[in-house]
Amino acid sequence: MFNLFLGQLLILILAIICTGRVFFTKDIRIDSAAFLSPLIFLLALLEIFVLELTPILCLIFVLSCLILITNGHSLVRLSNRLFVDHYNLPFVVFTIIEFVFAVLLLIALLIFVPVNYSLKDNNVKSQKILLSGTLAKGFQESSLVEEKLKFDGILREYTPLEDSKMDKNTVVLFVGTAKAPVLMYEPYLILLSKLGYRVVGADFYSKDAGIFNSYADSPSMRRIFALGNMFLEPKEFEKYEKIQMDLLPREYSALADFVLKKYGKESNIFFVTDGIDYDSILNVLDKFSENGKGFFSLNRIDEYKTSGFGFVEQNDLILAKYFKIQRDSSLFIPRYAAGKTAAEIKAITRL
Predict the structure, then answer these.
(1) Cα–Cα dist 75/62, whole Å
(2) What's the sign of the alpha-carbon dihedral 76, 80, 86, 88?
(3) How many CA atoms lie within 13 A of 302 on its CB side?
(4) Looking at the DSSP assignment, which residues form a beta bridge with residue 328?
(5) pLDDT value of position 52
(6) Cβ–Cβ < 8 Å for 317, 113
(7) What Rg do the C-alpha atoms of the chain give, in angstroms?
(8) N or C: the chain end with fewer CB closer than 10 Å?
(9) What whole-number distance in Å separates Cα of residue 37 and Cα of residue 343?
């Protein structure tokens, strides 16, 4: 999530430079700063598709569109190597409005800056694997170049930097949801891996894993649509939540199948859940009775106040404000949750 912040920060700095030029340009010159406008638009577009759409990023994208439109005339003049001798009044007015908009967004971005937690500082390494397949037929790693543009799932693996400190027989499994993908749990997953485990988290986007059955199921759109429904259409949100809960057992089963194929049929698997009912996860455990050693539900931790939404006090400060939770750079709750999970794993594997 901090990478998302850095990208947004870069876009807003470029936007302020581009729009702020009306305050400083007095003499006749080529308006080269206008070239920043298509760059700002492309960076905002790239940020949406590579990462995910957030409320602030949505506003940044709107700003980038306005800046591109406002600078259209200047771009045409530049492409024809024409000089700009002055800015007309409509251009100045719109550009000042955009400048103020950009400054306000920058202030908001800095107020809600996520916590910067480091893999290296925790002696953990991460690998991102794109998946193709379905819940019904199973998943495999995407191997073709064209599949990188259209994938059906994202798997994130966290392991200790030193293999000697890892329990090589145990794999911890976690599945994200529409309103809380794996990255919302990343501080916890990193800290759990630091304690000596291979931790695998997955988000599935195949057709049979759809929540909304529309473009809203895409990786960049799914979370903002889920949270938007929660605030604006509570009844619709309840319907989608039920669909999600019905899908989770199938998603955990699909992830377990993939993990056993990738890391070996003799691996012990341990499930971490957040919100799924006990009967459903017990049914998954029964299905994998030879390998499944147990599960740990995060909502058993009283100190974890945002069950189902991830660790918002590190990754989503806007949502944290809604839950009246303060930003926490110490990672206290995810560290405490990781310790409780590790203790549960050790207790079960010793039996």
Answers:
(1) 19
(2) negative
(3) 0
(4) none
(5) 76
(6) yes
(7) 23
(8) C
(9) 53
What pLDDT does residue 31 have? 67
Buried b (16+ CB within 10 A) or exposed e, 163-180: eeebbeebbbbbbbbbbb
Question: Closest Cα to residue 5, out of 119, 124, 115?
Answer: 115
Run of H or E including 73: helix 72-79
CA torsion, points 74, 78, 84, 88, in degrees to nearest 10? -10
Q: Please, what's the largest Cα pairwise distance for the chain?
A: 81
User: Residue 161 corresponds to which amino acid?
Assistant: L
Q: What is the mean pLDDT of each run of 10 residues along the chain (351 residues)?
A: 85 92 67 83 88 86 93 76 69 91 94 90 92 93 61 93 84 95 96 95 94 88 92 92 94 96 92 92 93 93 93 94 93 96 87 52
User: How many whole angstroms separate alpha carbon 125 and alpha carbon 249?
Assistant: 28
Taking the CA of residue 304 as centre, how many other CA atoms within 13 Å lie in the half-sphere pointing to its CB? 23
Judged by DSSP in three states, 293 sits in strand
pLDDT at residue 327, rounded to an integer: 93
What is the sign, positive or negative, of the torsion defined by CA atoms of 68, 72, 77, 79? positive
CA distance linking residue 209 with residue 126, whole number of Å: 25
Read off the tokens for 2: 């901090």
Q: Cα–Cα distance between 104 and 99 in angstroms, integer?
A: 9
Tokens 């103020």 correspond to: 100
